[in-house]
Amino acid sequence: MGLIDSHAHLTFPELRDRLDEIFTRCDDGGIDRIITLGIDLDDARSAVRLARLHPDRVHAAGAFHPHEAEKVTDDLLTAMAELWDDHAVVALGEMGLDYHHDFAAQDTQRSIFARQLELAAPRSKPLIIHCREAFVDTVPMLVEHGFEGRPVVFHCFTGSAAEALRLQEHGWRISFTGVVTFPKSTELQQIARSYPHEALMIETDSPYLSPVPVRGKQPNEPAHLVHTARFLADLRGVSYEELAQQTVRNTMRFFEL
User: Fold this and answer.
1) Residue 96 belongs to domain with CATH number
2) How many other CB atoms sit within 10 Å of the CB of residue 114?
3) What's the rounded Cα separation, in Å, for the pair 152 and 212?
4) Distances (CA, A) of 74 to 13, 70, 84, 115, 241
5) Residues 6 or more apart from 152 whose CB is under 8 A from it?
6) Confidence check: pLDDT of 1 > 90
7) d(Cα 209, Cα 141) in Å, to the nearest integer?
8) Cβ neighbours of residue 147 under 8 Å, at least 6 residues apart?
9) Residue 13 buriedness (CB in 10 A; 0-12 / 13-18 / 19+)
């Protein structure tokens, strides 16, 4: 049974010049599809081009990552919104807030996030949210802009059990990366053990966050998704095949693939 990597960055320098070998390892490891995300306009356009080149394997998403907020203009926002309507784009993101790093001022991040939510609201495609140490602001902004009960995924979730439950109450979901395989990720493992099977999705966030047993091997790549899937299957007490089938069904439905 194949898997779907619901969040990767194939256009990043660490991966884009090795795509032939990366796709070969995906074939060998059973990774059938990849959603690749652009973090600014140029990167999102590159993701769309890649999806057009490999329509049976790659799907695109794009938005302005919070790290890019200081560089975003009204013209760039307009161009991104136009790109969102491309048939190769299956989701809008990743967008959101990141208070861990200081690549952009927090007020600027909130402003650009709000503008993207305004532009996303009339569109039916799901949102992919980046939220790091900014839960207290991210959730109210999504509610304020009308995304209650709409398809929203907090990618690379590393928050608390209470936060995961709150997202479920809003009708949103979380996605698990290789971080769940790290020995110290005990609370995340507790969340993953009982997370609703009908909402479970997995990702690599490659080229980052290589899972055990390839942790520390850079760059991460979609073929490594099998390690996260096997870990979660063991954690949840199900077979690898059952977990793979469930995550594929969930991802296909969420992104309407």
Assistant:
1) 3.20.20.140
2) 13
3) 27
4) 27, 12, 15, 9, 46
5) 126, 127, 129, 142, 170, 171, 172, 173
6) no
7) 28
8) 117, 121, 127, 172
9) exposed
Domain that holds residue 183: 3-255
| 3-state DSSP assignment of residue 8 | strand
> Hunting for tokens 């990743």 — which residue is that?
94
Number of domains in the chain: 1
191 — phi, psi (to 5°)? -60, -45
Residue-wise pLDDT tens digits, 199-256: 999 999 999 999 999 998 889 999 999 999 999 999 999 999 999 999 999 999 999 9
Whether 100 shows a pLDDT value over 70: the answer reads yes
Q: For the whole model, what pTM was predicted?
A: 0.97
Tell me the C-alpha distance between 210 and 189, whole Å: 16
| Residues 54-69, mean pLDDT to the nearest whole number | 98
